[in-house]
């Protein structure tokens, strides 16, 4: 296909921070890749470059963050020549591609949910998407419906299921005045804890525990955006250990 205009839209949700959402490329050096990197949305686009280097078409745009929250996010990409509107969750970003070409020339397959291994360094360093997509629409074609009815040739690689598995994790919301208290384990010489967290606040107490027999305490907090661990031991010469990330 050689197109002057493109409209691509879809919804996705994932708990992974990396993954290719869709990809297409052509023999002339054109390509379009939409992917998650570090939980941000990245659109890479090239409408053509020349070997002399005087026309360099690669354009990369990054938008939003924390998209690995397993909530639905909607994407619309509208292209008319070099003018692009990228809309994520109704927030639109307008930009103009580098180079001098207006047509996107994709003469290989377009892949959703990953990219085929081409032997190029860029292909094997990218992870395939892991999560759910719905309402995939590419230039008026309902890709989700065509895939479900097996009307695409070639169709899917690997196992696709037309359902969305919900994660088994149960989150807890704290409103800055609430806390969760659980019983300790007496006569244990090992203290081990792990958890995931998300917050917009730069500071706050994540965990606190006193050791038995007044031997000290352990504290995990966020201080100005950094996670710190403080261990106080009352019966040691160096009675405080501080670790900050």
From TrEMBL:
SUPFAM superfamilies the record matches: Concanavalin A-like lectins/glucanases
Entry-linked InterPro entries: ConA-like_dom_sf, Laminin_G, Neurexin-related_CASP
Domain Laminin G: residue ranges: 1-164
Protein name: CNTP2 protein
Species whose genome carries this gene: Struthidea cinerea
Organism placement in taxonomy: Eukaryota, Metazoa, Chordata, Craniata, Vertebrata
Gene this protein is translated from: Cntnap2_0
């Amino acid at each position: 296909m050689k197109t002057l205009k493109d409209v691509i839209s879809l919804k996705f949700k994932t708990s992974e921070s990396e993954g290719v959402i869709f990809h297409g490329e052509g023999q002339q050096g054109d390509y379009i890749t939409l992917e998650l990197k570090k939980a941000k949305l990245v659109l890479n686009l090239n409408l053509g470059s020349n070997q002399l280097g005087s026309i360099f078409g690669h354009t990369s745009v990054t938008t939003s963050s924390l998209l690995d929250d397993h909530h639905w996010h909607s994407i619309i990409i509208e292209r008319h020549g070099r003018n692009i509107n990228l809309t994520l969750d109704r927030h639109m970003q307008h930009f103009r591609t580098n180079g001098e070409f207006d047509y996107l020339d994709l003469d290989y397959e377009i892949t959703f949910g990953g990219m085929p291994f081409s032997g190029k360094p860029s292909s094997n360093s990218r992870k395939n998407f892991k999560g759910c997509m719905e309402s995939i629409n590419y230039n008026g074609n309902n890709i989700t419906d065509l895939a479900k009815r097996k009307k695409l040739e070639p169709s899917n690689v690997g196992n696709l299921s037309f359902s969305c598995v919900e994660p088994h994790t149960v989150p807890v919301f704290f409103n800055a005045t609430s806390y969760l208290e659980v019983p300790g384990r007496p006569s244990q010489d090992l203290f081990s804890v792990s958890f995931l967290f998300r917050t917009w606040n730069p500071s706050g107490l994540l965990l606190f525990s006193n050791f038995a027999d007044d031997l000290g305490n352990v504290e995990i907090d966020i201080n100005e955006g950094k996670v710190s661990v403080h261990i106080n031991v009352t019966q040691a010469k160096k009675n405080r250990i501080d670790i900050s990330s």
